[in-house]
């Protein structure tokens, strides 16, 4: 397949500019392999002369099998007072030994005169020399024209002269950068149309999301004739981020019928997005276009019923095309059909208990439990209706004291009386907060019977006040995520008393884990005992 | 100023469809007042006949002073087999007594035939009848044409006939909905251009973000002649969300030079966005266009230095225009000038204490206190540095026990040892939750000295987990609003222990109230003693 648009990923360079991101060399290599397997055309790996980590990355990236995907080194045009041959930064770019080198240069007169404090002519010479050196060394050269759109508005003739300088030196790509992210799609479109009448070299677009328009701006560029899109996975990047390749790819492939190489593996899109989030240590965006957990969720009773009647009518694409799934949210609006469907999605047989389960769910929701975001609590309700259900434990008493004496930090002390198989255990534990103390006391009590619960890690905890105008008498909803290895599940609790709500979520979490093991016929020993 | 584009907010209806959102009536009223003060033209309040909460909202919203802003009730066209006069749902819409009613009706032949299982003609009659009834009752009528763009692609003639049915019955607005969010900007543009040649009624756009194009689609609609944009604050909504009014407003006002009423208060944009996040109990998006904490942050050394040299060169707009700030915001308050300004806004003289107050604020913010949304805690820090400051009370010990025995609800018992003017009092109180118990015990102890505190009503209470991945060991921020008559103030507390965080906010709230009375030289008697 011959591509009409090439995707150029800069997650590892511009994406890493996002506050809070710091990729190790191993992270960068994992992302490189992932994106190459996915079929991204170019991967910008970093700025080799900027730090030793990037230099190491380029050395090790050469050893990877990346198929048709090309790793690019990123840098800038030579310094104003250097010759290209003696510019340490350009030499660093060559030493990265990538087949493609991308260099950024100024395309705005204002920036040349006021930031670089150079003459317009000097900047043109720097562009030309730098591109020529890289071409002489056999590289494919991408010229990133920084601040192109702002520069074009200030002084269109000079902005074009910068592109022509790169073109005359043999640049393979002229990438027009909306560096500050302030342009509108119609500006991008008309400027690129004008540019294509003045240069012959293939055009690319590099957009930022400062107006929440980076995806639209990139698509407008393609309509105007651009053949390369620079962006990042999940749109991460400086300030508000870069153009999001995860949205762009299906928009190009499914909506605009453009030929893009990665479209052949479009059904891996959701997985790629989530894996990059994982490596970057970012929580995935549940509301992301195409790949978010909620991108194909249906909440309103009206819609949920209609979705089942005629799937295509309430979805803009089949979620399977991008490797995502349909999510039917259980909620007070949901009918019985949805509950059976949801149970089946979780691999549970609801059997004869449909009416009872439906009633239990309605009661739970009326109490404020909100099961739509708590698969674990939903599953527990279903499992408790199974004919062979036997509660794995019962909590008789649960007490927690929080004490602050002058000048001291508050401490919490919890005691739990728990019955398992007729045996009653009383335990006590202390922690900084009351919920942590309860958690410890419960685990102590359960541990002799179910050592496996030591493996459970509480990985997330959320508190929501349902009727805040009731102030301290308000109902509190607590949401807990628990994790063991790859497995994770969410449970909720609800009460006027935040301690009780937390305990409910915690107990549900522990019980579900034990019931799941029971079903598998597993023993209760630790999975990863030290 | 005559507006060229009107903003129609549906945060309270379509926004509330986002998974995890559940607004109380008090939340909805606060958002309504906030958006009206900001200058949003229309506020869609809810679906009156869908639940009693929404009916109560409309009753109470009528009592608010909303200036030129209009609250709209949302519903649907009549059922196929009803007459409009006897349709319970339409009657519910009229009973909401809003000057504007918005009704959604099908505009896709496929949906009419396969979801409604009705004839094309029946649907047209339902649209016409419903609009006519509402017009007869004197309402401004907004007709939301559901699935319009998909419907137009399937059968353009029928989609237009649906609009014409609404127009012939006197609809004031025809809003074209991209219900599934799958359309591209150029489709939106060309379809609206075609529509405006066939109908005379003003056009609106309702876009969803399933392709990460909702903002661009709304702008394309405006370029094609649409005069109303429906969207939500921060783009919250079902699936991937609705068009984000927070991005649209500055794009319209600053980039497209459109006349929009809310643009007069554009510098409040960041605050409005954050307050709605706070009420919805959502962490604000740091990377949001225009209003994110990072929207004008500069990380790369190159950029940061250049920004200082020539501000405009690396920012697409001046962040002050939208009430945002430059740099990575540790706090809005961080600079000293700002602290003096803020204190003056609150009518406080900071005197010689500027440096001490600045340090106190930095320490508080570093602990996670977030004084931006807690004027009361800020004021308390300032007041504590006044030369004549004397603590009105000091809490020696504070203890709370929460106990659940089998089959009983959890009860909390608090004891407080408080010193006022050298006199120590020990009190105990019981309540459903631990924070309510502490509140009662403290009031009992303080009441003999400051009877006025009986007048304080805690009117709002919010809990946010700052580092949820730390689970039950996470830091908790508690935010409390207290009210006496017309006066209300907000304080925060922060700790790993939710009880301690709540107590901190509560104590700050009580102390501030007493200090304010002291300043006025008022006695501490009750204001509205029964």
From TrEMBL, chains A, B:
GO biological process: isoleucine biosynthetic process; L-leucine biosynthetic process
Catalytic activity as recorded in UniProt: pyruvate + acetyl-CoA + H2O = (3R)-citramalate + CoA + H(+)
E.C. numbers: 2.3.3.21
InterPro entries: 2-isopropylmalate_synth_dimer (IPR013709), AIPM/Hcit_synth_CS (IPR002034), Aldolase_TIM (IPR013785), Citramal_synthase (IPR005675), LeuA/HCS_post-cat (IPR054691), LeuA_allosteric_dom_sf (IPR036230), PYR_CT (IPR000891)
GO MF annotations, alphabetized: (R)-citramalate synthase activity; 2-isopropylmalate synthase activity
Domain spans labelled Pyruvate carboxyltransferase: 5-270
Pfam families: HCS_D2, HMGL-like, LeuA_dimer
Pathway: Amino-acid biosynthesis; L-isoleucine biosynthesis; 2-oxobutanoate from pyruvate: step 1/3
Keyword Transferase: yes
Entry keywords, A to Z: Amino-acid biosynthesis, Branched-chain amino acid biosynthesis, Isoleucine biosynthesis, Leucine biosynthesis, Transferase
PROSITE patterns reported for this sequence: AIPM_HOMOCIT_SYNTH_1 (PS00815), PYR_CT (PS50991)
Family: Belongs to the alpha-IPM synthase/homocitrate synthase family.
Listed name of the protein: Citramalate synthase
